[in-house]
Write a structure and sequence with these properties.
alpha/beta, TIM Barrel, 8 strands, about 15% strand, binds 1,3-dihydroxyacetonephosphate
C-alpha cells in the first residue's frame, strides 16, 4: 500500500496571525498521529514563513499553492521554485482548477511549472478534474486523460514518487457535494491505467489523491477505495479539529 497523503490547501484565506493560530492548533492536536501519513499544509505565500517556522521539526511539510517556471528575472509578481525551496517548501500545488478556470492556466503552463519545480527539487501535487458541464456531456475521462497525459510529458522515472496527482472534480470543490467514493474510484482507476500505460510498473510510485468537499465525515469511505491514496482538503482544512480528524482517519 502507498503512503497516504493529506494536504490542506488554505487557498486565499487567513491573515498571518490566523495562520499562526491554526498551525499551532493543528500541531498540538496532530501529536500522536501515526507516521503512515504524509501531512502537508499549503498556506498563502504571505504566511509561508510563519507556518514553516511552526512546523519545523514536526512531521508536517510545507507547500506553496502556485509557482512560476523561470528561476529568476523580470516576471513581476511571480515566485520561482528556488524561492519556494528557500522559504522552506517541500511541495507545490500546480494546476489547481481555480488557477485553470479563473487565471487561464493551460495544460502547457501547468507542464512548465511541473518541470521547473521538479528540476529545482520541489515535489509536486498536480490537480486535474472536469467541470460539471464536461461531466454532464460525458467528457470526464477525456478531459482528465488529456490533463494527466500533458502533465506527465517529459517526466523522468526517478521523479515519479515526487509527483502526486490530485483528482478534483470542479463541481465538487467548495460545493459540499463530493464525488461518491465509487465515482472518485472510477476516475482514479482510469488515471492509474493512464499512468500505467506510460510508465508500466513504475507508475505504482505515483500517488493519486482526491479533492472536493472532503470532510471528517466522508473521508473514511473515500480512503477505503483501492486507488485513492489520500486527499487534498480545502474548506475543512481551515478548521483544526476537522483537519486533524481527517489525518487521523487516514492513519488508521
Ligand atoms: P473544498 O474541500 O473546499 O471543496 O476544496 C477542495 C480543493 O479545491 C482543494 O484544493
Amino acid at each position: 500500500m502507498k503512503k497516504m497523503m493529506i494536504a490542506g490547501n488554505w487557498k486565499m484565506n487567513l491573515l498571518r496571525h490566523q495562520a499562526r493560530e491554526l498551525t499551532q492548533e493543528i500541531i498540538l492536536k496532530i501529536g500522536d498521529v501515526k507516521e503512515g501519513v504524509d501531512v502537508i499544509l499549503a498556506p498563502p505565500f504571505t504566511a509561508l514563513d510563519i507556518v514553516g517556522g511552526l512546523i519545523a521539526g514536526s512531521r508536517v511539510m510545507l507547500a506553496a499553492q502556485n509557482v512560476f517556471w523561470e528561476d529568476r528575472g523580470a516576471f513581476t509578481g511571480e515566485i520561482s521554485p528556488a524561492m519556494l525551496m528557500d522559504a522552506g517548501c517541500k511541495w507545490v500545488i500546480v494546476g489547481h482548477s481555480e488557477r485553470r478556470g479563473i487565471l487561464g492556466e493551460t495544460d502547457s503552463i501547468v507542464r512548465k511549472k511541473i518541470n521547473a519545480s521538479l528540476d529545482d527539487g520541489l515535489n509536486v501535487i498536480v490537480c486535474v478534474g472536469e467541470t460539471l458541464q464536461e461531466r454532464e456531456v460525458g467528457k470526464t475521462i477525456k478531459i482528465v486523460q488529456s490533463q494527466v497525459e500533458s502533465a506527465l510529458v517529459d517526466l523522468e522515472l526517478e521523479d515519479l514518487q515526487r509527483l502526486v496527482i490530485a483528482y478534483e472534480p470542479v463541481w465538487a470543490i467548495g460545493t459540499g457535494k463530493n464525488a461518491t467514493p465509487q465515482e472518485a474510484e472510477y476516475v482514479h482507476t482510469t488515471i492509474h491505467e493512464i499512468t500505467g500505460s506510460i510508465f508500466s510498473q513504475d507508475s505504482e510510485r505515483i500517488r493519486i489523491i482526491y479533492g472536493g468537499s472532503v470532510n471528517g465525515d466522508n473521508i473514511e469511505e473515500l480512503l477505503h477505495m483501492d486507488n485513492i491514496d489520500g486527499a487534498l482538503i480545502g474548506g475543512a482544512g481551515l478548521d483544526a479539529d476537522s483537519f486533524v480528524k481527517i489525518v487521523k482517519l487516514a492513519g488508521e
